[in-house]
Amino acid sequence: MLRVSKLTDYATVILTHIAHQPDELHAASDITQATDVALPTVSKVLKLLSKANILNSHRGSKGGYLLTRTPKDVHVAEIITAIEGPIAMTECTTHTGACEQESSCEIKGNWNLINRAVYMALEAVTLADMVAPVRQQAVMVNMPLKTQTNDLKVEN
Amino acid sequence: MLRVSKLTDYATVILTHIAHQPDELHAASDITQATDVALPTVSKVLKLLSKANILNSHRGSKGGYLLTRTPKDVHVAEIITAIEGPIAMTECTTHTGACEQESSCEIKGNWNLINRAVYMALEAVTLADMVAPVRQQAVMVNMPLKTQTNDLKVEN
DNA sequence: TTATATAGGACTATTTTAGTACTATATAAG
DNA sequence: CTTATATAGTACTAAAATAGTCCTATATAA
Q1: What is the spatial distance, in angstroms and rounded to an integer, between the CA atom of B11 and the C1' atom of C22?
Q2: What is the CATH number of domain B6-134?
Q3: CB contact under 8 A, B125 and A117
Q4: Could you state, in order of their start, the residue ranges of all structural domains in chain B?
Q5: Which of B76, B88, B106 sits opposite A16 (nearest CB)?
Q6: In CATH, what is the architecture of A6-140?
Q7: How far B27 CA sits from the closest chain A CA (Å)?
Q8: pLDDT tens for residues B67-77?
Q9: How far is C-alpha B106 from the geometric centre of its chain's CA atoms?
Q10: In 3D, which of A80, A74, A77, A27 has the Cα closest to residue A54?
Q11: pLDDT digits (tens, 9 = 90+) for A14-46
Q12: Residue B15, CA distances (Å) to A92, B5, B35, B119 in order
């Protein structure tokens, strides 16, 4: 299925809400009302987004959360990473030594290639796109081989 | 993390092995030996790939599995779909009615856009690429807005 | 000083995934 | 036609990941 977690989904909903009024502070309780996501869950998501420097937080009375930058500069890849950690399709591409077959594995490099492609797809869409659905589309193109070799740089 | 399941990972390993000798029948027991994946697991994966028409099966003595087509025509997207079902990042994009906020959801269409981008990334890599690591790379490009409008066709 | 709001971490329940086992069916070979 | 071998299909169990909740600490405005 290649799913994004529910929390990540909530994160996009919450960020979309905040992005509508980018200059105001949004308290967790307000966001709960607006999004129908349970308060503890909203709170959890906001903390993660804050930690990832997508939101700034203000404590105390009249506190809340605020975007650290314009929605155009917040990429979907970043949101996913904030909630779920680094985007990597297979264990071996994040944790060295996680797989016993690692040394003899032929396809690790190819998974890295796939990771890259997926990551670029996710980086092409921003929070701004989520807020005001622009009919912009990311499209795959096969580049000439030779010119790309350096780009691959697959760690071994 | 945006993971592919372990079974999918096994599937790529198994298919890579088979693709090395595309004209021979490969029994589950042989593949176990070659890949160090447990027999019941190999068996499970092979059945799924067979059901998805990526492999042909031959029963009985001297039976086994065979690719249905050349490795160049087997896309990674298809392998993932065979093991995990349709590629969709969020629940709402596969199952209508799964989300209560569906009717008022602003970002569903955008998830469809993201799905599309990811799918294209995964379709750009084939089993042939996995077998003989070609230094080919898929790259994202932002297309002009107007020309793409028809392509989106986001169901509501 | 008090009310309010976030920070951080721990914990539990649920769901998903991985892995295994069992029975049925098809085929090649003696 | 019988037997050995291999896949088909399904059901079940165990393990891991995720979701969701709660509690205590800290910061800030009034």
Answers
A1: 24
A2: 1.10.10.10
A3: yes
A4: 6-134
A5: B106
A6: Orthogonal Bundle (1.10)
A7: 21
A8: 999 999 999 99
A9: 29
A10: A74
A11: 999 999 999 999 999 999 999 999 999 999 999
A12: 18, 15, 10, 20
Rounded distance between C-alpha atoms, residue B19 and residue B14, angstroms: 9
The torsion angle over the Cα atoms of residues B9, B14, B15 and B19, rounded to 10 degrees, is 140
Q: How far apart are the first and last CA of chain A?
A: 28
CA A17 – CA A23 distance, rounded (Å): 12
For chain B, helix (H) and strand (E) counts, in that order, are: 8, 3
CA of A127 to C1' of D29 (A): 31
Nearest to A124 by CA among B12, B140, B89: B140
d(C-alpha B46, C-alpha B49), whole Å: 5
The letter for the amino acid at A18 is I
Side chain identity at A7, as an amino acid letter?
Answer: L
